[in-house]
Here is the input.
Amino acid sequence: EAITLEAWVKVTDVDAHEYHVIVAKGRTGNKGFSPDNQNWALRIRRQNGKGHLNFLFASDPQAKNEDGSPASPNGHWHRWTSKTGFEAGTGWHHVAVAYQFGDPESLRGWLDGVRVTGTWDMAGATKAPPVVDDDQVWIGASQGGLAANSLIGSVDSIVIHRGLVSDEVMKTRYRREGPAVVAVAETMPELGSIPQGTVRLTLHEGLASHNRWLVEDETMPAQSLTYDRLHEFVLTKLPTAFDAWGMRDHWKVPVVARLTSDVDLPQGNHRILLRARGLSRLWVDGKLVLRTGALTGSPSGEEPMTPLATPLRPGIRLPGYRQQEAVANITLSKSGLHRVVLETIVGGKGHRPDTGELIVALEPEGTQDFYVLQAQSDNASPLKLTDEAVQSLLRRIDSELEHFDTSRRRQLASSQDAYWETRREYARDWLGSKHPDHQPATLDVLHISNPIDLMIDKKIKEAKRLIVSKPEGDNDLFHTLIWPIFEEHCFRCHGQRALGGFQLRDRESLLLGGVSGLPGITPLKLEESEVMRRITSHDPSERMPPVGEGLKAEQIELITDWVNAGAPWPAQAVSEQQLNYSLLLDDAAFLRKVSFDTIGLPPTEEEVKRFLADPAADKRREKIDELLADARWADHWMPYWQDVLAENPTLINASLNSTGPFRWFLVDALKDGKGIDRWVSELVMLRGNPHTGGAAGFGLAGENDAPFATKAQILASAFLGVELQCARCHDSPYHSTTQKDLFSLAAMLERKQGVVPRSSRVPAAFFEKQQRIALIKATLKPDEQVVPGWPFDDLVKNAEQSDSGELLRDKKDSREQLALLLTVPDNERFAQV
Here is the structure.
């Protein structure tokens, strides 16, 4: 059969990806259809920066010719691409292809009514018929709406003919009046009044392309942010992007950064300088005076070193790497205020939103120096374009930007304060009505009310009740000789777990029997002690411990003597002296210790002198508060949490579960004083941008076929003290955790049913080689599906029916449920860990 496909398209960014689907049948991702069932497709394909016509279909890979040879010997994907293309952003274009299936010579293409030639550039020409089924026809996308195949721009008037349309008909489809590219007139924007002394920065996200300004039917994107703290036409970075919770996010590139101010300039003929990284334009009093070109990059990531620029004047600050430099002459007919507007495009396809060192400077007539362009101000001093002056200026700008970012981040984060106050009320109710014994009470004797001090005092009192007054010699045999043997060789299987029904937690459990039914130890009777039979056995299938050559002769002799002595298991002797409170540190030692604990640095000499001279009774409490408010507190503790939470904490290696960028989320949370339950919950929610410092960066896991399992393992270890590393491949042999525990947790984090990867298995040969029952079990099969679910009933029982469920904002979100169950007061393990 024959088909003709035609449409009107306006592609605004051909560089966004290689293929832009206009209309296609099949390859939708719908259930019940093969993923490569392309009946036919009309697309735009990027080649050499232009959009070319592209026709694609798939044939049956099993199809045969009449002589029995393969119908498609070079592959079953067949693609034709035109040799002629069009520029992106050049308005509407008419595109069409016609094809008689089975006749490769029949392929015709038309661009704007003109016949174009092309080549079969995949699998060659074929007489094979296409795949034919009842899958859907999609417009503007394919493969389930995959962004990399979607049309960037507009489409109109699609026609599908069941037959071939002639050249004569296609010629009538297209007629243009005027130039092919209609650019929007470049006029200085009207921006109203600007506060005196201010260079106003506004950001506009999502421009069509970083390679050009607006064309017909396009408008400048709406204003995303206003920043009124600049006083000079100088910028080295954009303010930080945040989401609605105050998480670090990303600007939607390309971004137009617009700097506007009223500048007091003298009459005369001057030179004006612009340094910018990307496409930029500078107006003075409505006249366009300077431009720089579009942002460029290295196609391979490697390029020759760029030599240092030739300075315009001796002593002038040189432009930064990849900063373009443009100079022009301007004539001002009068002195006074002049409106200056700079627009620069920041970032783009394949480019981060980095401004570089953006600078506008002026060399007034009669001078031999360039000066940074400043807003009108009564107290502004001229700033020469020198290293010393600019570096000092940049420090001030960076400091003001950081303050702005912090204020904005906290303002956005405050949108969640009401919810967290609800969480606090729940916690207070839980403490007061359900667990009154947890309420802290002031310990008047020591004048402490800090709950940590109270906890320590409670433990000391409990320990003092257990003080053993027996001479230490009675404990030597067991605690110094026998216990270390049990701890090293037996506890992995018989400590937390009771493999074979035998456990070594205390003397009573030691005396009980295991799978053999014999007592573990019968005091004074070696022949009736199963432990003695096992540790002295020469049979590898029975000997304990099961690995290596068993215990050494001297170790067996020690245990023998111990059993013959009646197997005493006395409480360990503790002297009361060990449980006395240590003396309070003097002021100098306290200051040094608390400084290292909080900010990681010793106090300065001046800080020591001031603290020692302070007579205030509460100066230690005040000093602690002061250090916790110090920004260095966050800098010091962020690496600790990064080590706890990041398997591979690096910013530059994107593989092997790299989670480096979320360090910024950590330092922001610490600086903002967020409660640990709050920032851990926000971490689990994986919000923001993973590459710019949002909590989502914690979710990065390259070269990993079960990334959410890796993150679930880290969360369990860091905040619950539950080890799930073994459960990646099998149930833990030494703990009570199972594969299902890990993958249920991972499914909660992933917000969908998870699949056990094929790498999570133990080869069958391992079990075949075991001479006794294997310690490990693989209770899940590869590719087995695991539904989201809280696996730790011992921590939060009946999680589904827990009162804490009322705190969920989205009861269908398993990730939010995980964040809640991890940190809610019902889960006492979180606070303990």
Observations:
- Residues 407 and 413 are 10 Å apart (CA to CA).
